[in-house]
Design a protein that fits this description.
The structure holds 2 protein chains of 2 kinds. By secondary structure, chain A is of the alpha/beta class. Chain A has a 9-stranded mixed β-sheet, sandwiched between helices. A two-stranded antiparallel sheet of chain A has the order 4-5. In chain A, helix 1 crosses helix 10 and helix 5 runs parallel beside helix 6. Chain A is elongated and about 70 Å long. The termini of chain A are close together. The relative contact order of chain A is 0.20. Chain B has 2 domains: about 210 residues, 3-Layer(aba) Sandwich (Rossmann fold), CATH 3.40.50; about 60 residues, Alpha-Beta Plaits. In chain B, the strands form 2 sheets. In chain B, strands 3-6-7-2-8-1-9-10-11 form a 9-stranded mixed β-sheet, with helices on both faces. Chain B starts with a strand and ends with a helix. Classes of the chains: A alpha/beta, B alpha/beta. At the A-B interface, helix 6, helix 7 and helix 9 of A face helix 4, helix 6, helix 7 and helix 9 of B.
């Protein structure tokens, strides 16, 4: 079963929920947590395990082979991203603009633009008892997160069997990185907070997930602060709120040290337990 | 004209609350640009009138004409984004997966595929309650090219600021270090990093500052929720001084941030103590960017 933890707004508690839920569920079964917030991955700060695998991740970009090129300019003509330019007697490639579509390379009549690897990030895999963590980090300056997210999901799907519960900690927002991170999930858990920003961004996230036709539920973090408009919205939209984590300075302090919350905080344990119970129900109902 | 860009790396550090407070303090002289286009929240505190609204087109998307398609499968073969699926025997473009490279259209032997410009969102020019103007946007769900929409919001806000004779453009950037952040940073005079003393906050601050450094822009840092963890705060200060980043202020952990927001106010309009800290911070920034 694949569960994606997402939110429109950043800083609502995605990583807190992902790490605590993954650690809690691993007490009774095999779990892999995958941090897909590759721009700013934080799960590894909370889950300490033994490093068992590490690899560089690449995207494919064209590299000009001067010796064969006849300077016909077809590469520039077929590139929709202005990533290949013919400047006088030179073909210039702009890697940060390239989406890796292969059009320039495969449509080149002389084969002068072979595709080469360019490192975009690193993937690391850790293990502690029943819990595995797969974390990818985008190289600073690299703009496109999606190719790395895609490869990280592929890694998790090929290295862990179907019976392992897979939890994906998604990036914030509603743009392409979130789509990539959630489109493969059986269930999406949206984390929000009961504030105007939280509600506004939850609405966007709900629209996104509805467009993907995914099953989803909501967890309200920092419950007790703000107002009840998130609750009103969820009940009007028939969205199930499966847990509420209280607003508590102690939680913020424990989080600040990079510690898991549920072992020392009963209110968080109760919330995580009810989420785990819901997931078990969902699993049995849907057979995922 | 000076451009001040507020970013945070990590989400939820109080970036937008603080930017909105700066907008109020700066009043009619400060043009606001909300570049957090995929979760834009500034409008919730600025009451924009959306006087001008325009569609934003960027990138292309493929369409397959089923009457012309011979089901040869060539398009699916060349697509690197798995955007062409067979649904009920018909080759169909998955609009969320298509990156608009146009390769499929170029190899289709019967010219059944056309590309059209994609509407990825809207951008607005508004009068706001500070007596100034704001350029903001909303990105369509799952859209690509948020970096390009950010660039559009920035260039429009700068042009408008020049026309109206404003001396400052204040930019609310997006979280992370990817394309929208890169677009937010280009051309900035000064970067304000809003962080919190948590291990994640520090980790993300270091990464986003590495990006700022590549642009060679001077930066200052606001530590919000500063009393949350003394040990991490010390580490953070060591990092700031080693990197020559100005520590602009330390704001205490305070639920009043949320109270203010819930009441549609910025923190400087809600609480006297927060007002004095944030005003001091804003003045410090003014001294740096306008010596």
């Amino acid at each position: 079963m694949k569960i994606a933890i997402a939110s429109g707004k950043g800083g609502t508690g995605k990583t807190t929920l992902s790490t605590n839920l993954a650690a809690f569920m691993s007490e009774s079964g095999e779990v892999v947590l995958s941090d897909l917030d590759v721009e700013e991955p934080n799960s590894g700060l909370f889950i300490k395990g033994e490093l068992i695998h590490q690899e560089d991740k690449y995207k494919m970009i064209p590299e000009w082979d001067k010796s064969r090129c006849e300077l016909c300019g077809n590469c520039q003509a077929v590139c929709n991203y202005n990533a290949v330019l013919k400047m006088g007697n030179t073909i210039m490639v702009f890697p940060e603009l390239c989406h890796g579509c292969y059009a320039c390379s495969e449509l080149c009549p002389t084969g002068s633009l072979p595709m080469k690897q360019k490192k975009v990030g690193e993937l690391k895999s850790f293990r502690a008892d029943n819990l595995s963590l797969v974390e990818s980090k985008l190289i600073v300056g690299e703009e496109q997160a999606v190719p790395l997210i895609r490869q990280t999901i592929d890694f998790v799907n090929t290295h862990f069997s179907a019976h392992v519960t897979k939890i994906f900690d998604s990036p914030p927002g509603t743009a392409c990185p979130v789509i990539e991170a959630t489109k493969d999930a059986d269930l999406v858990i949206l984390v929000t907070e009961p504030t105007p920003f939280g509600l506004h961004d939850l609405r966007l996230a709900v629209e996104t997930i509805r467009q993907l036709e995914k099953e989803f539920v909501v967890v309200v973090n920092r419950h007790g602060i703000g107002d009840d408009r998130v609750d009103v919205y969820c009940s009007e939209e028939n969205i199930r709120v499966i847990a509420r984590i209280p607003n508590d300075r102690k939680i913020a302090e424990t989080y600040s040290r990079g510690e898991l919350l549920y072992p020392s905080m009963p209110s968080v344990r109760r919330a995580v337990e009810s989420i785990a119970n819901y997931i078990e129900e969902f699993r049995q109902e849907t057979g995922t | 004209m000076k451009e001040i860009v507020v970013i945070s790396g990590k989400g939820g550090t109080g970036k937008t609350s603080i930017t909105a407070a700066f907008a109020v303090l700066g009043g009619s002289d400060v043009m606001v640009a909300d570049c957090d286009v995929d979760a834009a929240d500034m409008h919730l505190l600025m009451e924009p009138d959306r006087k001008i609204s325009e569609d934003f087109y960027s990138g292309e998307i493929a369409h397959i004409d089923q009457d012309l398609c011979t089901r040869c499968g060539k398009c699916q073969e060349v697509c690197r984004f798995d955007a062409i699926q067979i649904i009920d025997g018909e080759y169909t473009v998955d609009s969320l997966a298509c990156e608009g490279c146009g390769y499929c259209a170029r190899v289709c032997p019967v010219d059944a595929i056309t590309n059209s410009e994609q509407n990825v969102g809207k951008w607005f020019t508004s009068g706001i309650r500070t007596g100034s103007s704001m350029v903001h946007a909303s990105l369509n769900i799952g859209a690509e090219n948020s970096g390009k929409l950010v660039a559009k919001v920035k260039s429009e806000s700068k042009a408008l600021a020049e026309r109206l004779g404003k001396s400052v453009v204040l930019v609310d950037g997006s979280p992370g270090i990817g394309c929208p952040v890169v677009s937010s940073l280009s051309g900035a005079s000064f970067v304000v990093l809003v962080t919190e003393p948590t291990v994640s906050g520090l980790h993300d601050l270091k990464r986003v500052y590495e990006l700022v450094k590549k642009f060679g822009i001077k930066a200052g840092c606001i530590v919000n929720k500063a009393d949350l963890n003394a040990e991490v705060l010390d580490d953070m200060k060591r990092f700031l001084s080693a990197e020559d980043i100005v520590l602009l202020s330390e704001i205490p952990y305070d639920d009043k941030f949320t109270e203010a927001m819930t009441n549609g106010k910025t923190i400087v309009e809600w609480d006297g103590e927060l007002e004095s800290v944030v005003r001091g911070t804003w003045e410090k920034i003014q001294e740096i960017v306008r010596p």
